[in-house]
Amino acid sequence: MERDSVDLLQPLWRALVVFRLITFGFACFGVWIRWDGIVRPSGAILQLVIMGVWTIVSSIGYSRRWGRRNTRLAFADLIITAACMYATLLAQPLIHIRGGASVLTSVWVAGPVLALAISRGRDGGLLGAAAISLVLLSLRGVDHAANVLSNVQLLLVAGLVVGYAASTMRRAGDRLREAIAAESATAERLRLSRSIHDGVMQVLAQVQRRGNDIGGEAVELARMAAEQEVALRSLMAARPVAVEGGRTDLCSQLLPLATTKVDVVVPAVPVLLPSAAADELVAAVKEALSNVAKHAGEARSWVVVEDLDDAVLVSIRDDGIGTTVAQLEQARVDGRLGVSESIRGRITDLGGTATVRTAPGEGTEWELKVDRA
C-alpha cells in the first residue's frame, strides 16, 4: 500500500478493505447454509464469482492512492454492488425474495456506502446509503418495506457516522500539514537567523559604530548600515503568513513595515482577517506612514495591533509636528485625497472606522478599527 506523508484517512481505507473481505466471506457462508433453499444454485455461484472478482479489484483500488483520491472508484463500487444485488434474481425468483428469501449479497452491500462516506464525507455516505436502500426496497417490494427498515436505518447511520468522522479527520489532516509546514519554515528561519546574526549583523553593527565615530561622510554610511540592520532584524522576526479558510494573519503583513523610524508591535498569536480586508488595512497603514515621511520629516512612528475579539484595532502614532483637523479638511477640499480616500475611504469600505487625533507639536495618531465579520 502506498504511504501518504500526512493522510489520517488511511486507517479508514484499510478498515474498508478488511470489511470488504470479511463481508464477502459472510456472503459465501450465507449461500452455503441456504444452499438447499436456493432455486438455481448455478446462479448463486455466478453471483459469488462476480462479487469475489469485484472485491479483489475494489480492495486493490482502495489500497492505492488513485483509488482513494478519485471518487470514481467509489461510485463504480456503488453501481456494481447494486448490480450484484439484482444478480440475486439469477439464483432466486423475485416472488421468493419478496416472500422472505434472503438477498445473497448480505452485509457486503455496505461497502460502497462506507467508501463514499470516506471519500465524500457525510453527504457521500448518505447518498450511498439511500441508493443501496432503494435497490433493497425494489427487491423486497413496497409492501414489505417494514421488514427492511432496520437495514435501511443501519446503512444511513453508518454513512452518516463514518462520513462525519472522515470529514473531521480530513480537516485535522489539513491542519497537521499546515502545522508541519509552519514548523519547518520556522526551523529554517532560525537556522538562517543564527547565520545572519553571527556574520552580517555583526558587520553592520561594526560599520554603524565606526561610521558614527569617524563622522563626516561616514555618518551616511552608518545610517544606511542601521537601516539594513533593522530590515534584516524585521526579516528574521517575520513569521509565516497564516492563511485559514480565506483569512490572513494581519501581523505577518505589518511586521515587514518596521524600519529605523518605524516600530511595529503585534500580538504573539496570529490576528486573522479576511484576506481582502487585511490587504486594505495594510494599504491604509502604509498611507499613514507615507504621510509621516512626507510631512513630519525625521519623526518616529509606532504601529500597534490590538485584537479585540470581535474587531481589530490598528494604531499609527508619530512624534512629528502634527497638524489641525481644519488643515486636514482643507487638504481634502484642495484635492489631496491621501487622508480622505487612501485611509478613511478604505476603512469605510470595510465597514470600519478611522479616527484621527492631532494637534500642532503633538504628532498625529490614527486608530483604524475593522470588525472581524
Characterise the protein shown here:
This protein is of the alpha+beta class and about 375 residues long. It has 2 domains: about 170 residues; about 130 residues, Heat Shock Protein 90 (2-Layer Sandwich), CATH 3.30.565. It contains 12 helices and 8 strands. It has a 5-stranded mixed β-sheet with strand order 3-5-6-8-7, with helices on one face. It has a 3-stranded antiparallel β-sheet with strand order 1-2-4. Helix 1 runs parallel beside helix 6, helix 6 packs antiparallel against helix 7 and helix 7 runs antiparallel to helix 8. The protein is elongated and about 110 Å long.
Quick recap of the structure?
By secondary structure, this protein is of the alpha+beta class. About 65% of the residues lie in helices and about 10% in strands. Residues about 1-5 have low confidence and may be disordered.
SSE arrangement:
Elements (H helix, E strand, L loop, with lengths): L9 H24 L7 H22 L2 H5 L2 H15 L7 H5 L12 H30 L8 H66 L3 H20 L5 E2 L2 E3 H5 L7 E4 L6 E3 H21 L5 E7 L3 E8 L6 H9 L4 H12 L3 E6 L5 E8 L2
Parallel strand pairs: 3-5
Antiparallel strand pairs: 1-2, 2-4, 5-6, 6-8, 7-8
Helix pairs in contact: 1-2, 1-6, 2-4, 4-6, 6-7, 7-8, 10-12
